[in-house]
TrEMBL record:
Residues annotated as domain MoaB/Mog: 177-317
Protein's GO biological process: Mo-molybdopterin cofactor biosynthetic process
One Pfam family named in its UniProt record: MoeA_N
Sequence similarity: Belongs to the MoeA family.
Protein name, entry field: Molybdopterin molybdenumtransferase
Function field: Catalyzes the insertion of molybdate into adenylated molybdopterin with the concomitant release of AMP.
Obligatory cofactor(s): Mg(2+)
Source lineage: Bacteria, Pseudomonadati, Pseudomonadota, Alphaproteobacteria, Hyphomicrobiales
Enzyme class (EC, first level): transferase
Entry annotated with the keyword Amino-acid biosynthesis: no
Catalyzed reactions per annotation: adenylyl-molybdopterin + molybdate = Mo-molybdopterin + AMP + H(+)
Protein source organism: Xanthobacter dioxanivorans
EC number assigned by the record: 2.10.1.1
GO CC entries: cytosol
Length: 404
């Protein structure tokens, strides 16, 4: 079987994928969710010309000369505006966030004034319009503040709230089911101490990645290498309660690699690929009805790297995310690296800040696809493209940072 490129495989997995549906959530709960519709401002901000400082609201022309003596005729505080206009030779005591009264166009900060009873005298010049936030300088009613497909940050929901949205329309969370196969697998703390046992790890990482990408995750547990048992669990996973079924293990070509046969037997239109990627060559992808199925390799590091490359973008695409990733970032090599072969390499690596400010990346000496101690110690994946020539320390490169 010819190797499929990583780009082609990502295209295959995310092709014709769109958001599953929309729900309204309180703005306070919307960070991390994907915005389903463009969000228009429901008000103008600031709603009027507002003072940016504590001081005196004046007519700029009145204070062209310093000192200028003005009669203080009232006060404008945040939430308690001054009712009347400011006339020639007059000033209004004003505080930060207060409406600038009609007639005034400038705020003199109190540090640049001297107050004597009802008279205020300027002690330094202030340019006209200084210290005033003009009406609508942030946003105006009816203009789009946030665009559909955006994964909302804490900063975005601040803007949404200020635009007067108590709830936000977001993509519903994809419901993801996880399955792990292998006769050797036992849950943490539940082994009998036999050397042939392996304590499961994959689903913990897959669940963490999928949840961070916005999914609602259900772990359907361990399944032995038994076709009937795998088929029964697959049938349950495909029964309509989930949008995406993710398996780990049994994806390769061994006699006990039964996930593919079980998925096919349950009517999944499945394609099995060898991807030009390391770690994690075997990958299965298919669907039955509206339910998608992603079969990841069993080796723990491979399952995690493949999840970063395929599962996370798929979960994001299922929410209409305009940038489903995976998103690479620029860095520089901290050490020399050898030429690469045909498989795109995602090397477990560590980042350090170089004296010149650039991020310098060092791959770990061991890149075994079963070594979780190395995966946990890494803080990024160094991407080595297919057939990349040998690289020298200082050469530009690309990484995918771990953001969890
Ligand atoms: N003749 C060939 N053999 C293999 C090939 C190949 O192309 N030809 N590919 C290798 C590659 S690459 C990988 S990756 C593995 C993937 O195989 P499977 O997806 O079938 O995975 P398993 O055989 O079930 O398990 C592999 C390994 O990982 C451990 N494992 C499995 N599930 C879990 C889990 N949930 N938590 C922790 N560890 C798990 C399992 O015990 C095995 O040690 O195939 C190669 N072979
Ligand atoms: O997919 Mo494998 O990770 O090269 O062991």
């Amino acid at each position: 079987m010819a190797l499929m490129s990583v780009e082609e495989a990502i295209g295959l997995v995310t092709a014709e994928v769109s958001a599953l549906g929309t729900e309204d959530v309180p703005v306070a709960a919307a960070a991390g969710r994907v915005l389903a519709r463009d969000l228009l401002a429901r008000r103008t901000q600031p709603p009027a010309d507002m003072s940016a400082m504590d001081g005196y609201a004046v007519r700029g022309a009145d204070i062209a000369e310093t000192p200028a003596r003005l009669a203080v005729i009232g006060e404008s505080a945040a939430g308690r505006p001054f009712a009347g206009p400011v006339g020639l030779g007059e000033a209004v005591r004003i505080f930060t966030g207060a409406v600038v009264p009609e007639g005034a166009d400038t705020v003199v900060i109190q540090e640049n004034t001297a107050r004597d009873g009802a008279i205020v005298t300027t002690t330094a010049p202030t340019a006209t319009l200084r210290n005033v936030r003009l009406k609508g300088c942030d946003f105006t009613a009816g203009t789009p503040g946030l665009v559909a497909g955006r994964r909302l940050t804490g900063r975005d929901i601040m803007l949404a709230a200020a635009m007067d949205h108590p709830t936000l329309p977001v993509a519903r969370r994809p419901r993801v089911a996880l399955m792990q196969t292998g006769d050797e697998l036992v849950l943490p703390g539940q082994g009998t101490g036999k050397d042939s046992e392996i304590v499961v790890s994959n689903a913990f990482g897959l669940a963490a990645l999928a949840r961070r990408a916005g999914a609602e995750v259900t772990d359907l547990g361990l399944i032995g290498d038994d076709l009937a048992a795998i088929r029964a669990r697959v049938a349950h996973a495909l029964s309509g309660a989930f949008d995406l079924v993710v398996s780990s293990g049994g994806a390769s070509v061994g006699d006990h690699d039964l996930m593919g046969p079980a998925l096919r037997a349950e009517g999944v239109d499945l394609s099995v690929h060898k991807i030009a990627l390391r770690p994690g060559k075997p990958l299965m992808f298919g669907s039955r009805g509206g339910v998608r199925v992603l079969g990841l390799p069993g080796n723990p590091v491979s399952s995690h790297v493949c999840a970063m490359v395929f599962l996370v973008p798929l979960v994001r695409a299922l929410q209409g995310d305009a940038a489903p990733g995976p998103l690479a970032a620029p860095a520089r090599l901290a050490v020399d690296v050898p030429a690469n072969d045909a498989r795109r390499d995602f090397m477990r690596a560590r980042l350090e800040r170089h004296a010149d400010g650039s991020a310098r990346v060092t791959p770990f000496a061991s890149q075994d696809s079963a070594m979780l101690s190395v995966l946990a110690a890494a803080d990024c994946l160094l991407i080595r493209p297919p057939f990349a020539p040998a690289g020298k320390a200082g050469d530009p490169c690309e990484i995918i940072p771990f953001d969890d």
